[in-house]
Amino acid sequence: MHIALVHPAGCNWVPGKKDVSTTANRMAPLGLLSLAAYLERLGHPVTVEDCLGPRPARTGEETVTRVLANHPDLVGFSTTTSGFLDAYDLAVLLKQNHPDIRTVFGGVHVSALGAPLLERFPAIDYLCLGEGEQTLAELAAGASPGTVTGLVWRDDSAVRTNDRREPIPELDSLPFPAYEKLVGFPGGYHLPLFSYVQAPGATMVTSRGCPYQCSYCDRSVFKRGYRFNSAEYIYEHMRYLRTRFGIRHINIYDDLFTLQRQRIESLCQMLVDRPLGLQFNCAVRVGHADESLLKLLKHAGCLMVSLGIESGDPNLLEVHKPGVYLDEVRSTVKRIQDSGLRVKGLFMMGLPGETEESIKKTSDFVISLELDDMNMAKFTPFHGAPVWQTIAEQGEVDEDWRKMNCLNFVFRPSGIESWERLDHLYNTHVKRFYSDPGWRRRFRSRLWQHRHSLVRLVRDLPDFLSAMRTFDPTSNR
């Protein structure tokens, strides 16, 4: 069976503004590439259409023409919440052209909502809940839908939900993602500006799941279990990217890269003993970043470590990210920098319970940490997150799926007087960070290292200036 896998564009920016998200950071769709590699290993030809890639179709009709050019029997869409409706529009166009083509939707939004989506959206034939590799493989092999675990399907006029599929226990059994399926990879894909020194770059994920239960995190696909690739597998994956594609920097997007300490120590020792000529970034959690491990990461080629902090208000942390304390955050940031690594703080504004006072506490805390970089997401209440169950009681919700991308406020905490005020507070904080003399001094001191980022910045300067104006609190936008 020929299978086409589609990564929809969705709405990845502020409505009414030119989408510059891919200019800033164009990531390979690793979930789809993992599916593609798994299916091809079983003998099924697969094509991948990345609507956020470097050469996207200009219209939905053109995307459908590209997909149909390979005569697929089954078309799969991986959807976030903000990308779901865009994917559905493509499914409708596909059905109009070829009613016999089967469509299957998967991803976090589908896994969170399940069967009601099939009832509301008739152009979808199947929903894949949870991990998709084995479910899609059974469908491609011609199994009866009623026998495929993890599948939601139509039985005449009824919608059936099969038993949930157990997660793949051994991640090392999976092939490396099929990066070669992407038109323009690696040169057309790029990491966030100034987050790397060497180019080209790529991304990896080396684990699935998380044992923690932060209020805002949707675990619909991988649940709370934690599975991971071995150090040997990760090293070979890195070596493959280096030798096959010439990759010089890898961003590892695990939530908890250092949780299983032994594998990280083993991996770092391999990278020290058998260098691959590349650097990497990763994320750590407070409590899993002691001095010896950080120094080992540095020695192995790590450039920057991201740290999920979320808020500078201890009361909000207690509710939304229990087990993380401000004093420990401070000491962790200092240890990271003392080890010679850069540190990027990850924050979130607009959480339930947020007030102007808590936002000021966070802004002051961010400046006091003397971070090398910062990302402030706009809190988005996803359907599979624990906080969704009570979100309507804690403020005003705008359930516009297209805007639920962490780049737009779709929830206004009851402690903030208006949507306009919330946007103003956000923009004021972002401008404060990047205007801080300490941050600018740290940035200038290493600017000479980032020639690849500077080339991108100059090339796409109009888009970046437009984005800056979007976040300017004095702009009328």
TrEMBL record:
Domain B12-binding, by residue range, is: 15-150
Ranges where the Radical SAM core domain occurs: 196-414
Q: Which CDD domains match?
A: Radical_SAM, radical_SAM_B12_BD
**What Gene3D superfamilies does the entry give?**
Cobalamin-binding domain (3.40.50.280), tm_1862 like domain (3.80.30.20)
Q: Is Metal-binding among the key words of this record?
A: yes
Q: Give a single Pfam family match.
A: Radical_SAM
Q: What keywords tag this UniProt record?
A: Iron, Iron-sulfur, Metal-binding, S-adenosyl-L-methionine
Source domain of life: Bacteria
Q: Which cofactor does it need?
A: [4Fe-4S] cluster
Q: What is this protein called?
A: B12-binding domain-containing radical SAM protein
Look up and give the organism this protein is from. Desulfofustis limnaeus
